[in-house]
Amino acid sequence: MMTQFQKEMSNRFTIPLVPLDSSRIQSVRAKIPTNYNPFSYYDKTIISVDTLKNDLEYRTHLENAWWDIIVIDEAHNVAKRGYRSSQRSKLASLLANRSDTLIMLTATPHDGKGQSVASLMNMLDPTAIADE
Fold first, then answer.
1. In terms of Cα–Cα distance, which of 33, 32, 77 is closest to 53?
2. Where does the sequence pass through the membrane (predicted)?
3. pLDDT by residue (tens digit) across 34-49?
4. How far is C-alpha 31 from the geometric centre of its chain's CA atoms?
5. What gap in Å lies between CA 124 and CA 19, rounded to an integer?
């Protein structure tokens, strides 16, 4: 999915994206000073939510990074479900507050639960739905 999205952005909009996975992030970290944020190394990147969600090592860097645009594809996978938030949902909520623009894409209908839709809407605008 990531490769397809990367190709589409390049072919349709001439936006080159550098794919980041765990090994490439480690490679960047080896090249830069320890206090430098590896997510600031490249201007335009594409990275899987699954690469970031489990690694507590990235959290501080993510909390201290700022992006112009974050695009979350398959956004229905980051919706809050029930009373516990998934790692994907927590990560998406963190990232939603770290950019000027958040774009969430999905072709999958939501699960029909108001809380799921409200959690996605509140990532876009925290004041959109007061009571999930």
1. 77
2. none
3. 889 999 999 999 998 8
4. 24
5. 25
38 touches 26 (CB < 8 A): no
What is the rounded distance in angstroms from the CA atom of residue 87 to the CA atom of residue 94? 11
Tokens representing 83 are 């009373």
CB 57 within 8 A of CB 24: no
Distance of alpha carbon 129 from alpha carbon 116, whole angstroms? 12
Q: Which two tokens stand for residue 124?
A: 């876009």
Longest CA–CA separation in the chain, Å: 47
**Is 69 within 8 Å of 114 (Cβ atoms)?**
no
In 33-77, where do the E strands start and end? 45-47, 67-72
Residue type, 118: A
Q: Measured between alpha carbons, how far is 68 from 22 in angstroms, rounded to an integer?
A: 22
Give tens-digit pLDDT for 90-131. 899 999 989 999 999 988 877 778 888 888 999 999 888 877
Contact predicate 37/69, CB 8 Å: no
Residues 78/72, Cβ–Cβ less than 8 Å: yes
